[in-house]
Amino acid sequence: MTNTIEYFVILKGTNKEFATAEFETLFSLYYNQKIKLEQISNVYYRFNSNIKLTKDDEIFKRLTFTKHVSFLNFYGTFEDLKSKLSSFEISKHYEGMPFAINASRMFKKFQLPQDLRELAAPVYDEFKSPSVSLKKFGIRFHYFYDTTETFYFTSEIYHNSMDYLERMPKYRPVVMPYTLKSDMARAAINLLDIKDKNSILLDPFCGIGGILLEGYDMGFKIFGNDISWNDLKYFKQNFEHYFPDSFTSGQVKRTLADSSTQFLKENSIDGIVSDIPYGKSCRRLGDDLYNDFLRSAKVYLKPGAKLVIIYANFLEFKEIAKKYFTEITEIDHYINKSMTRHILVLENTK
């Protein structure tokens, strides 16, 4: 029988509801186990599972709004840690690996009571042949202080490299205003609850391709559609800048069509993610567009598949969508005092 393992998680603070939904969805998807993140404070969370995570697990290639995951070894004072450290069997699990030590405050109102050398000393003594490296380490241990005396002592499994930041809108060859940021796009795709790399991901209002860039990076087959040929040209330009072989690989397709029409075959799409149009520059707006789009999407989206639609707070989109699809959840993402984006997760079960 596998023992229950306690994990320590740090989320990005931009939208904790979005971050927890992404983590819990992906954990269920990859391990077929539902977990609930329990908030310790602010962006710090914990959860229990009998699943032993490793740094090479697929889930860590997908997480976006999670900054850090580690095993939770101990909570208490430094003196208590020193007396219990041998029970963690550090030498058994990590002997031969260079290690690093990190210490940080969960709250800024106090100073760290010890320096890193003092904190590293008892860990160092646990190894038969200790080796320290702050850059090329095999394992990193963390002290997360929540008071001037008590801390969470953890063994790191995952640290988010955030390489998707290279594809943020301001860095793309073609930039358009109000384009969805790369991290939001990735997290929205993760809420689709799909992992098969043969899955086809559609954005029916793809514009210059910001969402689908992230879907391609995750390994999915990509289908972009827009009513503007100029946007589709820029879509190709952006893709070929970041992924030069994307179009020749056959993994990326684009079509010029009115998204309110049924432009794809029945049951041909595994998931839909889109930041639907709402601005004055859009060629067609209103309830008719959304009704027609949703009616058509229901035909080409596979039964039981999901769509994640991002829409502005001043649109009455959700009530229209619920005529065709089952609502799973909705998450608000504050932009400014006049603009909030809603992330609506729907399922094709009606």
Care to give the gist of this entry?
This protein is an alpha/beta fold and 350 residues long. The chain folds into two domains: 5-159, VC0802-like; 164-347, 3-Layer(aba) Sandwich (Rossmann fold), CATH 3.40.50.150.
Describe the model:
By secondary structure, this protein is α/β, with parallel strands linked by helices. Helices cover 25% and strands 30% of the residues. The chain is built from nine helices and 14 strands. It has helices at residues 16-31, 78-84, 90-94, 116-126, 182-190, 210-217, 229-242, 287-300, 317-321; strands at 5-11, 38-41, 44-49, 66-76, 99-105, 139-145, 151-159, 200-203, 221-226, 252-256, 269-275, 301-312, 326-336, 339-347. The protein has a seven-stranded mixed beta sheet with strand order 2-3-1-4-7-6-5. The protein has a seven-stranded mixed beta sheet with strand order 10-9-8-11-12-14-13. The longest helix is centred in the first third of the chain and has 16 residues, at 16-31. Mean pLDDT is 93; it is low at 280-284.
Label this structure with key terms.
25% helix, Rossmann fold, VC0802-like, 7-stranded mixed sheet, 350 residues, alpha/beta
